[in-house]
């Protein structure tokens, strides 16, 4: 988390954004829930090729797992995402990828059971 904050501070100094924590909070929101101003802020973040921008993109890509239609398709997607995440050299992302690997079958069983945690 420390590298996210320092990366966000660096970006805030280089842009008009005054609150570096604001950038980190924006990355926790889904793109569909962002205002036009927030989308513009994130666009400038992506252009800077920061660690936080890479982490955000990896997170968004993982969400695409839930768009796959079968367990086989989901497993193929997850294998590619896992490789990308573990080779990202971003310690929190690598840790998250390893956690998913430890629960690999449970994640993929969601395709068979159809159960979700969405209320």
Automatic annotation (TrEMBL):
Pfam families with a match to the protein in the record: DDE_Tnp_ISL3 (PF01610)
Domain of life, per lineage: Bacteria
Lineage, opening ranks: Bacteria, Pseudomonadati, Pseudomonadota, Magnetococcia, Magnetococcales
InterPro entries per UniProt: Transpos_ISL3, Transposase_DDE
Protein name per the record: ISL3 family transposase ISMac21
Organism: Candidatus Magnetaquiglobus chichijimensis
Domain Transposase IS204/IS1001/IS1096/IS1165 DDE: 22-116
């Amino acid at each position: 988390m420390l590298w996210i904050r320092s990366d966000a501070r660096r970006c805030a100094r280089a842009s008009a954004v005054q609150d570096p924590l604001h950038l980190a909070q924006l990355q926790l929101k889904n793109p569909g829930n962002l205002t036009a101003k927030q989308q513009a802020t994130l666009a400038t973040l992506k252009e800077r090729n920061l660690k936080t921008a890479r982490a955000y993109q990896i997170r968004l890509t993982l969400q695409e797992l839930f768009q796959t239609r079968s367990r086989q398709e989901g497993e193929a997607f997850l294998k590619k995402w896992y490789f990308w995440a573990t080779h990202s050299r971003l310690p929190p992302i690598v840790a998250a990828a390893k956690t998913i690997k430890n629960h690999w079958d449970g994640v993929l069983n969601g395709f068979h059971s159809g159960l979700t945690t969405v209320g």
